[in-house]
Each structure stands twice: as structure tokens, then as C-alpha cells.
Please model this.
Amino acid sequence: MMINAIVTMPPYAPYLEETLKHPAVEGIRLNTVMPFKGALEDLLKGLEDKTLAEGKSLWVDLKCRQLRVKDYGVPPFTEIRLSHSIKLKTPAKAYFSDRSEGSTVLEADGDRLIMQEGPKRVVGPGESVTITDSSLAVDGYLTDLDKRYIEAGNKAGIRNYMLSFVEGREDVEGFKKYSPGSNIIAKIESKKGLKYAKNEWNGESRLMAARGDLYMQLHWPHEIIPALEMILSKDPNAIVASRIFDSMAQGPEPSSGDISDADNLLRMGYKSIMLGDDVCLNRSSLISSLNLFSAIKGRYER
Model:
């Protein structure tokens, strides 16, 4: 039983080929909020060729209904533009990065949040916004940028996609109309997503427990544990992602908590992890994390 990792790879990282050769790596993830230059089709084709040459897989991560900041917001400010228009009963709380940065939304006007108070720092394009209120309704699924990636991906022969905030079978089946024959990883990142995984999922995709946003969406932090167990019980091939070895992005030594966390995920039975942006943006932290992961996973491989 092999246990492997998917790594988030910046489009022009000079350590791409070194990473692809690492024995723990099963594939790479392209986070589509990262800027690119030139023709998108050329970028995807180049990454796909390099990945396939090493016998690995390229996964294009689309943002879908995930709420993200559209423009820069510099404090003090009272308006934030979003990647989607939404409907929301107000007042409600919006969170930026973590639970400590909660701000009150006084009104949701299309893609604008009118804030009572903004976060006490600059927020920028691509930054995620978490709204946990059950009244939240996001207009549409795929973003304009998602559709550009799909169009370019079809031309470049890309067939592997991650879909963010999947909350129903129609999200997966609807996507396949844009890219027939695609392999889909459905990222479970909300309470609605958990209901889909528990009651509706029927093998139409590979599930991913995307702990970053999912952790933010849950009412109590400890609820992440049964959520992870449920997703794995439905899909034994599920991937667990985010908040893995984050301490490695801060310095050369991992925290004991990060080591125990990774070990616990493997004890649960997860066979694939995905490392997130912070760890992977630096060669040293990425390679060190992969080496650490290799040492831990050796106890569970047969």
C-alpha cells in the first residue's frame, strides 16, 4: 500500500523538476489564483508535459463557488468586493484567514459586502472569505477565470481537475459538460459539502477533505475529526489536504503538533495528502516536508 502526496506548485517554480522526481510525490496541483504570463494553453501544456514525463499527474484546481476577495481593501474601509454575487441575511459574520479575523457584514449587495468594520489589515485579490451563516447563497458555480482554464485545458489535453466547494452531484455532473471525460477531485469544504459526501456521493469523483475552509465552516473546531472520518468512510481513496506541516513554512524545524497530526491522518487510513500553498512556495520547506512525510508514512506502508 503506497502512501503519496500531491504538492501545490507555483507555475514557474525552478524546483518543479526536482519535486516531480521525489518518490513521495504522486502529482502536482496548480492553484489557479496564482498569476501567469503568456498564453494559458502554453502554460498548461508545458506543466502537463513535464509532469507526464515523470509519470506523475497534473491537477488544475478551480475555485468554483469559493468566495474570494476581488479587489484590494486597505483599512479603514467598509466595502469588500467578492468573486461571486451572493444573497445573505444580515447582519452576519465574515472571516478572513482564520476565526480571529471576524468582521460584521451589514449588507450583501450583489458582489459587495458592506462592512460594519473591515479586517485590521490589507486584504487582497484571491484571498478567501468565509461566511458560515446558513442563509448564504452563492450565485453561480464556475467563475470566468475557471472557464478560461477549462477552455485552455481542453486545447492542451488536460483531463484532471479539482473542484472547490462541491455541494451536490450536479456540481460534478455539470462540470463534465464543459470537459467531457475529465477526472474530478471533489473538494469538500462546507457543511453542504459534507451532506453531499454522506448522503449523495456515488463514486462520480474522488473526494478530498479540504481542511482549510472546512475547518472554518464548522460550528465547533473539534467537529473536523468526525468529518474527516466520514469522508474517508465513503471514499477509501479520499485525499486529505491543507494545514499539513504548516510550521515548516515558518522555520526549518516542524512542530511536534504537525508531526502528530500527519501521523493521525495516516492512522485514520488516508493514503494521500495534499500540501498547501504556504509550505510549497519555498523549495526548502517543500522538500523538507516531503522528506518528513516520507519518514512518517514508512510506518504504514506495506
Summary: Residues 172 and 204 are 7 Å apart (CA to CA).
